[in-house]
Task: structure prediction
Amino acid sequence: MRRLALTLIAMWPFAVNAAEPSLDPETGLATWQAETRGIQVRLTQISPDQARAFYRARGFSAAAAERYARECVFMTVVRNVGDTPIRHRLADWRYVHAGKTRPIRGKAEWERLWASLGVSEAARIAFAWAQFPASQTFAPGDWNQGMTTFRVPRGERFDLEFVWHAAGKRYSGTLEGVHCAAEAS
Result:
């Protein structure tokens, strides 16, 4: 029994990785990563200037690019590090900020906003391709990346609950204490 308890205690940090973020020495941008039960999830800050420049270069007006840059933007990477297929639906993911649980803004919600702001179809297509996929199945070794956004004021922290399915079961993990990139000074 003692051996089982020690084994479970030793495995616990892998279930939810709340480690401090790593910092890129050149940019100062932070990355949070969790790896558990065959999935690896990584969030890397995208600065407001990077978000503005990226979308201005893809045909967004200054106002539309600024609207996106006001969000808390991350490059999100999901990798199947296990030996069975995993499936995710971004609609199942939630973030907790100021005691409230919220869904991640999806592509459809952004699409409606871009259409109302008169963003060109070509720019909207570029936007859709740059976002993290709404759902995907990953074979062992597969990975994908894309942008995700969170409605969180700069400087404030939130926790991300990510959800996936494998072998007919639902799993979840958490990245804790995530925060947006600061505005350049």
